[in-house]
Amino acid sequence: MKSFEEKIECIKEILTKLNANDLNLKDGVSLYKEGLKQLNEAQEMLEKAQLEYEEIKNTLKDKN
């Protein structure tokens, strides 16, 4: 599984390809779908990290 940072780099590469003038419709749609998939996975990773952070913060808060 790719890390969050790797997913962001992949998304950037897809955006660069989508902005190319010589891209045909079929490839554009395929890249768009892959970009959305990578973006959704990155968002899930970010949300999971945020929940973990909140749990840690609350645990430390309860100990004080």
UniProtKB/TrEMBL annotation:
Quaternary structure, from the entry: Heterooligomer composed of large and small subunits.
Pfam families per UniProt: Exonuc_VII_S (PF02609)
NCBIfam families reported for this sequence: xseB
Claim: Coiled coil is one of the keywords in the record: yes
Gene that this sequence comes from: xseB
Coiled coil spans: 1-59
Alphabetic keyword roster: Coiled coil, Cytoplasm, Exonuclease, Hydrolase, Nuclease
Main location: cytoplasm
InterPro entries: Exonuc_VII_S (IPR003761), Exonuc_VII_ssu_sf (IPR037004)
Known catalytic reactions: Exonucleolytic cleavage in either 5'- to 3'- or 3'- to 5'-direction to yield nucleoside 5'-phosphates
GO BP: DNA catabolic process
Organism: Helicobacter anseris
Cellular localisation: Cytoplasm
Keyword Coiled coil: yes
The protein, known as: Exodeoxyribonuclease 7 small subunit
MF annotations from Gene Ontology: exodeoxyribonuclease VII activity
Family designation: Belongs to the XseB family.
Gene Ontology CC terms, in alphabetical order: cytoplasm; exodeoxyribonuclease VII complex
Functional note: Bidirectionally degrades single-stranded DNA into large acid-insoluble oligonucleotides, which are then degraded further into small acid-soluble oligonucleotides.
EC number(s) reported in the record: 3.1.11.6
HAMAP family documented for this protein: Exonuc_7_S
